[in-house]
Amino acid sequence: MTERTGIFAGDDPFALSRRWLEEAEKSEPNDPDAAALATVDRNGMPNVRVVLMRGVEDNGFVFYTNYTSAKGQELEQAGSAAFVIHWKSLRRQIRVRGPVARIDPSQSDAYFNARPVQSRVGAWASRQSTPLQSRETLIAEVERLTETLGDAPPRPEHWGGYRITPLEIEFWADGEFRLHDRFRWTRADRMSGWTIDRLFP
After folding, report:
1. Where are the domains of the chain?
2. Which position among 4, 42, 92, 178 bears the catalytic label?
3. Closest C-alpha among 8, 184, 21 to residue 96
4. Of 60, 74, 95, 154, which sits with the fewest C-beta atoms within 10 Å of its C-beta?
5. Residue 4 has what pLDDT?
6. Which CATH class is domain 6-113+158-199?
7. Is residue 178 flagged as an active site residue?
């Protein structure tokens, strides 16, 4: 096995990811869990946007979104995705690729119910990725739904979580003169063991 020490030490890539995220929480000014999520549409055209990775589980990374949005449709169609989290303050990044699937509805319910009421109403009001006539239209819909849904809006069926189960994870750290350190973890499927390679920068 490739020798790894210091910030790269450990035999569990998910524990290592959590450790890096915890370190970033102390130094990143905003959203240390922000990730650039890449998908592809039916025509093979790539797409990328920032989402918040709200959970690093024992075998995957979880984020939440509108299932009917452009990203949701592309995730459902392709069944796989990739993302990168880059922490400027730490000069590190994590890259992930793998299959993606919806999480259990009860897990989505628990996360949704923990959000501020205004954010929960917003999930109902937004027809994410579709044309919007004006911001006033959106605000009016939020106000209407605030009265209709009350203080405990339930999770709409079109909103919930996805889990990316990596087949490849790369840990990258900045090096002097651009001689970066890169370690790539790969496996054939979620039940297989990991192979770890040090990569040229």
Report:
1. 6-113+158-199
2. 178
3. 184
4. 154
5. 86
6. mainly beta
7. yes
Mean pLDDT score of the chain: 96
- Confirm whether residue 90 is marked as ligand binding: no
**172 labelled as ligand-binding?**
yes
Kindly provide the residue ranges of all beta strands, DSSP E only, lying in the chain, ordered along the sequence: 34-40, 46-52, 55-56, 61-66, 80-87, 92-102, 159-164, 168-173, 181-186, 195-199
What's the confidence (pLDDT) of residue 1?
Answer: 55
- Return the pLDDT at 3: 75
Which stretches in the chain have pLDDT values below 50? none
Q: What is the pTM of this model?
A: 0.94
Per-state percent for the chain, helix, strand, coil, to nearest 5? 30, 30, 35
What is the residue whose two structure tokens read 């699937």?
A: 101
Q: Is 64 annotated as a binding residue?
A: yes
